[in-house]
Amino acid sequence: MITTSGLSKVYRSRGREVTALDGVDLHVREGEVYGVIGQSGAGKSSLIRCVNLLERPTSGTVTVAGQDLTALAGRGHRAGRELRRARSRIGMVFQHFNLLSSRTVQDNVELPLEILGVSGKERSRKALELLDLVGLADKAGSYPAQLSGGQKQRVGIARALAGDPKVLLSDEATSALDPETTRSILQLLRDLNRQLGLTVLLITHEMDVVKSICDSAALMEKGRIVESGTVGELLATPGSELAAALFPVSGDASGDDRTVVDITFHGDAAGRPVISQLSRTYNIDISILGAAMDTVGGKQVGRMRIELPGRYEDNVVPIGFLREQGLQIDVQGLAQEPALAEEGAAK
Ligand SMILES: Nc1ncnc2c1ncn2[C@@H]1O[C@H](COP(=O)(O)OP(=O)(O)OP(=O)(O)O)[C@@H](O)[C@H]1O
Ligand SMILES: [Mg+2]
């Protein structure tokens, strides 16, 4: 639904160059909620602004719903007609809502329809329908100053939906909201995604946002995507930073002569009694240092940190047993496992 290839953005100001995007290949599938996470300055907003051509990329292409936007003329406020039309089908939600304070809630939602040249009666019908969809039917005549932050963001979302977009872009839509309101706005985005088949690309610096609604996620660092995939794929990737951050487990070894192993359960493996099997099969005592079960991307996932007596060399066989059960195994404190390093060397 959204594809960027080799997307780069270099800002030039007062003789200085800042590379905000450095060859970003992003692929968002139709109907999914895709989260991009990264630290401040990583290039997240630049990415989203390039996706709807508010910023013209320095190089690379952006395709949304099969249309190559980078081939269309203009940018920002000077976009050509075709680009403007394409952009009206991409909804955008902002951190600070960007509502016009002099207009009522309904008139704010009508604004993009005015720009599209929709007639007054049709505009008003559509705006009221959208306000109903976001749960604000009774606030049509209010002014933004009379609304709470969460209500303002609902107006922002209704406005973003005015052009019947297939794609919704959201840049830190919940960063200015308290945790409770954040949850309700995320739930609304999830509902819209399901009800309208809307594809959502959202930018956030909060792992909880990714955890609660995203099907897929990417981690950005210094203008590049360093990890990406569905939540399931990330959890199954050894050493994935995103997976570890989505699903933190902690607990330190009780002594030097111990092996600490993180086990990630997802899919079928989540239901099997692997720990007791391990203990019985190898006659070893296993301590559980930490554990968590949660729902990530709508699926049940568990992580457990266990401790086995002896060093890694003494536990190669039990660890192999765990791997054979189809579990994701990360041995702590090993840069690269000796067995895997040998395999790599042999190739
Ligand atoms: N219009 C601009 N002109 C010059 N440099 C810019 C411009 N916009 C962004 N930058 C620079 O590009 C880099 C990436 O900025 P960007 O806003 O994309 O980061 P971000 O990941 O959204 O950060 P945050 O989480 O703080 O919003 C930063 O170094 C920033 O200073
Ligand atoms: Mg930003």
Automatic annotation (TrEMBL):
Transmembrane segments: none
Entries under Gene3D superfamilies matching the protein: 3.30.70.260, P-loop containing nucleotide triphosphate hydrolases
Gene Ontology BP terms: amino acid transport
Origin: domain of life: Bacteria
InterPro entries, per the entry: AAA+_ATPase, ABC_transporter-like_ATP-bd, ABC_transporter-like_CS, ACT-like_dom_sf, MetN_ABC, MetN_ABC_transporter-like, NIL_domain, P-loop_NTPase
GO CC terms: plasma membrane
Domain called ABC transporter: residue spans: 2-247
UniProt keyword terms in alphabetical order: Amino-acid transport, ATP-binding, Cell membrane, Membrane, Nucleotide-binding, Translocase, Transport
CDD domains associated with the record: ABC_MetN_methionine_transporter
Any GO molecular function: ATP binding
Summary of subunit composition and partner proteins: Homodimer. Forms a membrane-associated complex with FtsX.
General function of this protein: Part of the ABC transporter FtsEX involved in cellular division. Has ATPase activity.
Family: Belongs to the ABC transporter superfamily.
Record's protein name: Methionine import ATP-binding protein MetN
Gene designation per UniProt: metN
